[in-house]
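Human:
Take a look at this sequence-structure pair and walk me through the tokens.
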Amino acid sequence: MTARLVSVGNALVDLALDLPHLPARGGDVLGRSRGLHAGGAVNVLLAARRQGLAAAYAGAHGTGPLGELVRASLAAEGVEVLLPAHPSLDTGLDVAMTEADGERAFATAFGAEAHLDGAALAEVEVADDDLVHVSGYGLLGATNGGVLAPWLTALPERTTVLLDPGPLAVVERPDALAAALARADWVSASLAEARALTGEPEPESAARALAAQGRGVLVRLGAEGCLVAVCGQVERVPGIAVEQVDTNGAGDAHLGAFAAALARGEAPARAARLANAAAALAVTRRGPATAPTLAETVAMLG
């Protein structure tokens, strides 16, 4: 493949904690730390890379130990970093809290990744056959919405844009989210996000409404798989039963595998099956960046 996945998402660092349950307000709970790991857009890039797709990070990153961790994690798997480090800010931190049943909650403090330089981004060359990943976290007014909206609009028409709206942007509805939705060729959303964006309570109706502008849509249903909506048609692609131990990064693994499959020329339904398999494997492993290789994913499908 000559295509790349170019991410302008937010690469930050996850502090991963295992907890028996989230603490009550004003309370405390004893847990176990699983250390610091590069996360956010890094997870999507590594997932795509492990599926055989070239990948590059075109977002911002910091000067300091957290920025160094992000760059080292990307370099270890052959992901190119396209922009220089921010001269005075370090990369931000996300506290990822995983409960005993595998569910998780997050608290995020943005850093350098929320200060993307528009002039530097304008110098990034995106080819017609590239795929561009954009996250809703980067579209917030407090992050890079003002920079990313015009940049996305100016991308080559043939470049495929994949949008993961995320929960914060769906709630805040920044102007940049509307611009990203208008340019997106594919939207990958959780069921809660799809419902919030469309006002449709039924999964199939939400998927169809989100695809109304001619874009393709994935609605992720967790263990039940996903819905694929293309040209008004909605197809349910079943999930794969596994023993779930950690859901951190499952959506990122799903999107990275889907992007790589599209770049190989797979049909959307087949790409979604591969994405479901990748996400299923990811939740059987502890840690945020647990996306499988293409060989593991294909073997999972039998």
User: Anything to note?
Assistant: The mean pLDDT is 95. The first helix runs from residue 41 to 50.
